[in-house]
Amino acid sequence: MTVENVQKKTVLVFGATGQQGGAVASALLSDGWGVRAFVRDTNSIKSRLLADAGADLVCGDLSDPDSVRVAMCGVFGVFSIQPSSGQGDVYGVTDEQEIRYGKMVADIAVEQKVKHLVYTSVGAAGKGPTGLGHFDSKTEIENHIRGLDICFTIIRPAAFMELLLLPGMGLDQNKFTFFIRPEQSFQVIAAQDIGKIVGVIFNRPTRFSERTIEIAGDEITGNALQQALTEAAGKDILYQRFDNALLTENDFLGRLAAVIDDGRCAGNADLTALRNEFGHLLSLKEWLDGPGREAFRAALSTSSSQVKLR
What we know:
By secondary structure, this protein is of the alpha/beta class. It contains 13 helices and twelve strands. The longest helix has 17 residues, at 95-111.
């Protein structure tokens, strides 16, 4: 990897115990960066694993700007991610809180003279109001960052491959239910490739300054998803789209299906250009055969009830 005259120092990683932040922390540590992990509980299992891997833990809370300011003091870069209001009761974060936290992290990065801010958004951002707060909140944070005097890069990941293993999709019943139509294109990305991409960005800040990059590793259809799941399972897995009656009855699911159908949440990444800039990115088949294999096998055998997405 070519380093663009950057002395590798320390990156403050928010969400370091989550999927994206964890992948970023791992990629940066592997590449020789110092990682300062912003966590709420330094004694949690995930936090201790981070420390064992070489990260420095700093205890803080996004509701406490002073703790963010202390954590950010002296770092070269910041990887910014906030709990998403779309995660329901997992974090209990409202749209307004997510926006406030995202703007606050960026403002403090300017105040602390951070050299490079990388903000992770979502594929549907910047494409007009969606009516889904956890998408539109990220558009507002993006716009705020663009108005600041700081070197920044915004990434917009496609749907995580890990999303396919959420409980309730029916894998334990030899079927899989999701939003895409049988012939509809839909982009996905492995969480570890988000880490890989962010690592390259921090290594080459000038190249990626003031860029907004749609990122994905593969493009599939409902039919292709059925084939990939069937091959990985070694038995037939039937793919089906959520029933129209459910999408009509459940406003959240219906709105989400709509922004997938109109393309705003289906993924718009240039896969060829991404591979030219960031190297090989995992296809869904490679992920199912590799990093996702254990979790996929567990999903096949774990009994689950009807999906409960808000």
